[in-house]
Amino acid sequence: MTFRRRVFAEILQDMVEHVRLNTPLTDFRVGSVIRTLLEAAALEDDEAYFQMAQLLRDFSFTSATGSGLDRRLADFDLLREPAQPALVEIVIHGPRPVLRDTPIAAPLTVYCDATPDHPRVEFVTTRNGLIPAGATASLPIPVVATVPGAHANIPAGQIAFLRSPIPGLEGATCENPISASGGRDAETDDDFRARARRHIRALPRGTPQALEGKVIGVRAFADTGELLGQVSSALLREERPGESTLFILDATNRFSQTTETLLAPETLTAAATPGQRHLRLAHPPILPAALRLSVRSPGVPPALALAPGDPAIDLDDTTGVVTFGVLPADHAFRDLSGQLAPGLLGGAIVTASYAYFTGLIGEVQRVLNGDPADPLGHPGWKAAGTRVRVRFPAIREIGVRLVVTPKEGYARGDLVGPVAAVVEQYINGLPLGGEVVLARIVALAMGVPGVFDVTALAPTGNVAVLEDEIARAPRGSVVAS
Q1: Do 222 and 201 belong together in one domain?
Q2: Pick from 365, 377, 395: which is nearest to 285 by CA?
Q3: Is 102 within the bounds of a domain?
Q4: Cis omega before residue 285 (within 30°)?
Q5: Same domain? 126 vs 152
């Protein structure tokens, strides 16, 4: 049966007709006792229908709007893209050549005047500048718009004014040689829905075979161009519904789980919007429990310290998304009625300190989870609503001791090296979870020319290897005598 919302007038009319047909009452004029009682009941029913209609609308992301759409798509790990400020470089022109290197301290505010095409837009420098000795113009200085939005994508040559003079460079001017770009308004409901449709169409990519196949061949490089690692095989293990661990095998056999700890706290937002709930770390944290958040709310002197496990926050450690619930009263956002509500106070500054993976694990995480800083190169691959952690397997070192009997005409000392080499090659070539088979070791050793017989002293049987382990034989661990 299709849901149809009924309104007050229709509900009241049905009630009046029912009472008229089933009771001796006849006075249903406005103001009568019975009509007033029926009106009260009809108002409540009308409100119930309204709430049911709202619930149905918010249940589907195709019809939900605003915060309802945000809540619905958060189930798929999708967050509305916030407004972004425009970026550009400017050049400061002094009135005359400077005698020595002249620094230009940041922050310095510059602006373009309002025109019929755009309003006045202010930019602030993000690092110190410099006018070299003998020059009148500075080296390019990056600036960022103080207010995010597409309105700040202004043409070249429009940024021409300093809000205040530069000490020692009175009369200086500025210009932007190229157009400002990167400014973007907050994602609209329609754009958010369109992105969600594209994302959900890729849900079949979340199968174990798709995830394992996607990462094979992924490489990680150091800044110097050195190859840090390359995925040769992968195994996905489901920990619980919606949460899995992807174990990867490094073809270089380094298994270096390189980590980096943020010594200086990472700023997640320098000025939160009122009621903002979702913030994203630049990298997924290695140890979620070690994450530390600091919330500095305007007008509240002590900063609020938060960590995973605190009921005020929720962390998705695979994507690095932090969701804020109801904060303590001093820092809490309040809705229009003044009640405590989930989210941050407007203008709050949130910083985080944590450790994250670099190297091969970090690169595979970017391939699977996506990288907001590189949406074209790393759009993400895993299915919406799932969590995939990337790890190296545990190394299971295997010791082998063999006694080799040579054939007539062969010296034992000439055989021990080739025998150890073929056994090492077999063990080090096993895949994730690959069992070490004693019969295979003996057969490989027997296959070496000149070997008459082989006795295995260790291991004494097959060695079982867990699916999150990998068998390896370090140099010197295979001894043939």
Answers
A1: yes
A2: 365
A3: yes
A4: no
A5: yes
Residue type, 439: A
36 located within any domain: yes
The pTM of the full predicted model, rounded to 2 decimals, is 0.50
Q: Is residue 471 part of a domain?
A: yes
Residue 114, CA atoms < 13 Å, CB-side half-sphere = 3
Nearest Cα to Cα of residue 433 among 382, 459, 408, 468: 468
Question: Which residues make Cβ contacts (< 8 Å) with residue 101, sequence separation at least 6?
Answer: 130, 131, 132, 133
Six-digit token pair at 417?
A: 């090296």
Which among 140, 175, 210 is the end of a domain?
175
Indicate the pairing of strand 400-406 with strand 478-480: parallel
Q: In this predicted model, what pLDDT tens digit does every residue of 63-116 receive, in sequence order?
A: 788 888 888 888 777 788 888 888 888 999 998 899 899 999 889 999 998 877
Residue 312 Cα to chain centre, angstroms:
20
Secondary structure (DSSP) of 342-375 = EEEPTT-EEEEE-EEE-HHHHHHHHHHH--TT-T
- Which domain, by its residues, includes 453? 394-480
Judgement on whether residues 317 and 244 belong to the same structural domain of the protein: no
Number of domains in the chain: 5
Q: Are residues 250 and 266 in the same domain?
A: no
pLDDT tens string 414-460: 888 888 888 888 888 788 888 999 999 999 989 999 989 988 888 98
Distance CA 32, CA 25 (A): 11
| Distance between CA atoms of residues 88 and 140, nearest Å | 9
Residue 68 lies in a domain: no
Q: Which residues are within 8 A (CB) of 129 and not within 5 positions of it... i.e. 6 or more apart?
A: 92, 103, 104, 106, 108, 138, 139, 141
Tell me: do 117 and 163 sit in the same domain: yes
Q: 295 - beta bridge partners? A: 304, 350
* Residues 132, 134, 140: CA angle, nearest 5 degrees: 35
Number of helical (H) and strand (E) elements in the chain, helices listed first: 8, 28
Same structural domain, 233 and 280? no
CA–CA gap between residue 423 and residue 214 (Å, rounded): 31
